[in-house]
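Aim 2, interim progress: modelling of the NAP-bound target.
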Amino acid sequence: MANKILVTGATGTVGSATVKALSSLGAEVRAGVRSLIKGDNLKRLPGVETVELNFSRPENLAVAFTGVGAVFLITPFAQDQVEMAQKLIDAAKGAGVKHVVRLSVIGADAEPSIQIGRWHRQAEEYLKASGLPYTLLRPGGFMQNFVNQYATTIKENNVFYQPNGEGRAGYIDVRDIGAVAAHILMNPSEHAGLAYTLTGPQALSGHEVAEIFTTVLGRPIHYKDIPEDAARTAMQQQGLPDWMTESLLELSAITRAGYTSGLTSTVQEMLGREPHTFQQFVEAHKDCF
Ligand SMILES: NC(=O)c1ccc[n+]([C@@H]2O[C@H](COP(=O)([O-])OP(=O)(O)OC[C@H]3O[C@@H](n4cnc5c(N)ncnc54)[C@H](OP(=O)(O)O)[C@@H]3O)[C@@H](O)[C@H]2O)c1
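Predicted structure of the complex, ligand included:
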């Protein structure tokens, strides 16, 4: 019987949060992982099995999708993410999957959008055209980006640098994205054909984020707004490819311009509880900073 819920990119930030949320709801979960060794921790959760799922290996796709009822389709921030998503949608269709929940991005439906949004829109359109029942999740910037991108400078120098000016963002904790995704995947037919924009509870500027870090960590943490050119040079020095540097700078440009400050109440409406605050996020990850 096709009752398994497959999560692709399951070792990633959103994927692992979703696998945990599904496991706690008693789901039968198949965690699609590029490396079985890396997926070892997930396998220890109740109801979770892992399957090798490298998107460039067609033989992996066929096995991973067998017996799957619903899939949470996560692809990485990569230049070929649209092709990856298309391959996965084709595989889902071929295997007779009944519902696809797609991790997209806030503003994917906006015209003309930025590169990240346009890539996601292409994947969304391919999914819609596939005829598969679908739900789209469009989250704002992740709070967990601060662990992945700024933990070192915060820990070592009590500062984080962003070319975001005084722009605000409705950062969301990926634990809430995972909980919403799990909620939908357990009852997908109720959410068929719908798109949900997900944000956290507050739109925060860099200085407000720094104040929260200061309060929780008990030492002064500073936000430094830097010019776009300085951010470009820093990213180039870190070895980021040009496409990634320019995509991230576009994101900062729309943040500076005030386009990322909108909030939604979707998490509260869907889960019946408030989304995590930035303060709760920092408290949960104190050791990283
Ligand atoms: N960061 C944000 O603020 C933000 C906001 C809105 C939307 N998004 C969207 O969220 C998505 C990224 O989610 P995330 O942050 O959870 O990603 P992530 O942490 O970077 O994880 C990516 C996952 O994809 C896997 N993966 C990468 N290449 C693969 C391949 N060729 N075959 C199989 N698996 C592969 C990775 O496996 P390994 O662990 O083996 O590398 C990992 O499990 C992107 O679509 C992004 O646009 C991000």
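The mean pLDDT is 97. Residues 9-15, 34-35, 38, 53-56, 74-77, 103, 105, 116, 139, 141-142, 145 surround NAP (CB under 6 Å).
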